[in-house]
Amino acid sequence: MAKLWQKNYTLDSMMEHFTVRNDYIYDEELVISDVIGSAAQAKGLRKIGILTEKECSDLLKGLEEIAALRLKDSFPITLADEDCHTAIEGYLTERFGEAGKKIHTGRSRNDQVQTALRIYMREGLLKLSSASLSFASALIALAEKNTSVPMPGRTHMQIAMPSSVALWALSFAEELLEETGMMLDLYHVFNQSPLGSAASYGVTLPLDREYTALLMGFEKVQNNVLYANNSRGKFEAFFLDHAEYLALTASKLAQDLMLFTLPEFGYFSLPRELCTGSSIMPQKKNPDGLELARSRTALIGSCSMRVKSIIKALPSGYNRDFQDTKEPLIEGFRAAEELMLIMAEMVAKLEVHPEALAAACVPELYATDRVMEKVLSGGNFRDSYRNVGLNLDKVESEDPVSSLGKRTSQGTTGNLGLEKDRVWLEELEKRAETESGRLSEVYANLIPGITEAVL
């Protein structure tokens, strides 16, 4: 099909490649999202009399065919297409002639892309939430199995105070739960429809934007048509910033695991199937996945920065610069989801070595406990601290397991709040699952057979 903007000349081939670049490759990710938006567009045009009932029915049938082809990787997007939007319209025009030529009525490629991206990011938030909750669930399960396994707590990487495997694992679990909750709150920002905003200024047709928003399952219309355009890139940055928060948590855990699985520590062992080898040293079992967790965090952060650098100081209204925000969005999302899933697998298969952990609880670990004992016996903190500090050689060890129960304030080793964390996890899972289920019904009502392709 000719380009959506086709004029009475042929675009220079170098300019064609420069303006399209890899966009058409990444657009394969957006086919299903665009099908959903186009289905709502067709029904919206039918409502105001631009399409006949048969034309609308034919277009919906064609869109369902496209979704099925995409599921089989049989709907390629080529450089000549520029993007999936042209490819989809080309397919519909070839199949249904005049009806296919009408589907773009009243919309710009701008709000068409915006709508597809909004649907894609909405699903992406739910998928990323699900993956991060799997990661958090694995950490909570690890904590539940190891509530009485002591572990040296560290500050500045040095021995500090008594801790436990459960406390350590739950610190990451609660961080992930917090971040996932923030992401699900952000979902409501994404859940508004830009369709009908056209090229930032609307059109003279009586489009029913509320109707098409409802068809796609959006909570509301993104009201101001110029704001709908200006939010492009900003919403992608919101998405990637939250993905980076999750990645930063994974990166810290990865660093801890690399340290604590060293033979010199021996606190944990990684599963062999999640480690790689050396091309020259036959004995090596390398934690490459953990190392890549650190670098993927940088990759995800760079995707967010790329988007913000692109949109910085752009004038209002559509600018072609926005096109280059698509690649970092998709790349960052893919990397974040994969990172959450591989870290969940890593934690689920982690082997804990209680003997090594208990042996690491050396006498100096209890120095602060001795200070607190003196305070409870009537001494003031400053003199008690000085006395213990000047007599560290006299600090005696104690049973590391029984010492865990001496800490009873909320969130410590003797009062972890595991039950609350489990409830917190289940509440977030229910929020994500409920919304996914709602969207499945919405899509099934819009186009039968499309649900599997999206969720």
Secondary structure blueprint with pairings:
Layout lengths: L12 H8 L2 H4 L4 H17 L5 H19 L12 H13 L1 H5 L6 H37 L4 E6 L2 E7 H26 L1 E2 L15 H7 L4 E2 L3 H6 L3 H27 L7 E2 L18 H24 L14 H23 L2 E2 L1 H6 L7 H10 L4 H9 L10 H5 L13 H29 L4 H4 L1
Parallel strand pairs: 3-4
Antiparallel strand pairs: 1-2, 5-6
Describe the structure.
With 455 residues, the chain is mainly alpha-helical. It has helices at 13-20, 23-26, 31-47, 53-71, 84-96, 98-102, 109-145, 165-190, 209-215, 225-230, 234-260, 288-311, 326-348, 354-359, 367-376, 381-389, 400-404, 418-446, 451-454, and strands at residues 150-155, 158-164, 192-193, 220-221, 268-269, 351-352. A hairpin with a 2-residue loop joins β1 and β2 (158-164). The longest helix has 37 residues, at 109-145. The two termini are 30 Å apart. 42% of the residues are buried.
